[in-house]
């Protein structure tokens, strides 16, 4: 059974930084793409970033490009999201996404077909 656990959220002032972590267990972490999504109150869950199974290819939503960095440590079964230059509009619950299929590429990741963690709250004050 695949389990996904996020951590690292919190309250930060605009312009600040946070680093989210996600530990995935129950399968071979290093053979799957991984991603981050977020959901603000009253809005649909949206893509933030994704990374290929080796970590060599990354994709970002336009809204976070240049500010956020996705990374992974396959030896630790851990996915990261470094968030710099945070803005109030980044406030949301952030979810780690583990695709159900090993054939799902980082580029193709969407809101369907993933295992999800419980999410971690990120709040950015102005």
Task: Give an overview in words.
- It is built from no helices and 11 strands.
- By secondary structure, it is mostly beta strands.
- Strands 2, 4, 5, 6, 9, 10 and 11 form a 7-stranded mixed beta sheet that branches. Strands 1-3-8-7 form a 4-stranded antiparallel beta sheet, with no helix packed on it.
Helix and strand arrangement:
Layout: E1 3-7, E2 10-13, E3 18-25, E4 34-39, E5 46-51, E6 58-60, E7 68-73, E8 78-83, E9 92-99, E10 114-116, E11 120-125
**Helix/sheet category:** mainly beta
How many DSSP helices? Answer: 0
Uncertain spans, ≥5 residues at pLDDT below 50? none
- List the quaternary state of the chains: single chain
**In sequence order, what are the helices and strands, one letter per element?**
EEEEEEEEEEE
Beta-strand content:
over 45%
The largest sheet, given as strand count, sense and whether it forms a barrel, is: 7 strands, mixed
Radius of gyration: 13 Å
The overall average pLDDT, rounded, is: 96
The general outline is globular
User: Count of DSSP E strands?
Assistant: 11
| Fraction of residues in H or I helices | under 10%
For the termini, the CA-CA separation is 40 Å
